[in-house]
């Protein structure tokens, strides 16, 4: 729930890879992300799947993310961000701006389009937006791609996500 405080009983320091599905265009959903991330202080790989919604509810902009305060795992732990099902919505872009401005140790960000772009102009507009974002880790690289699973759900199944034999059960973007 948004605003839930972090305590020793809610922290899970052993988690190194975390996957979240969140509708970043829905204010109440997006406001839960900082609290959830604070419960996983040692996450080094973060997968965010942008949930689809028919309408935006409330505006969550960059200022809103900054008001949520410092999120330690973003600032000093996360080396890889994989953002699944990117559509270029206002909420998604606000989250990415906040993330890039905060992530000091980020090495790589992979942005996976929800659907194959319809034109080179669409790709260029997304590149321009993402490329112009100020980044705390200037040596990090940002890759844009389309998802390898046309159904979009295989890597997010409980069975696959709970298989701990691969290094990252969600890496098949």
Automatic annotation (TrEMBL):
Signal peptide: none annotated. Pfam families: FBD, LRR_At5g56370. Residues 1-48 form the F-box/LRR-repeat protein 15/At3g58940/PEG3-like LRR domain. Residues 67-111 form the FBD domain. It comes from the Eukaryota. This is Uncharacterized protein. It comes from Aegilops tauschii subsp. strangulata.
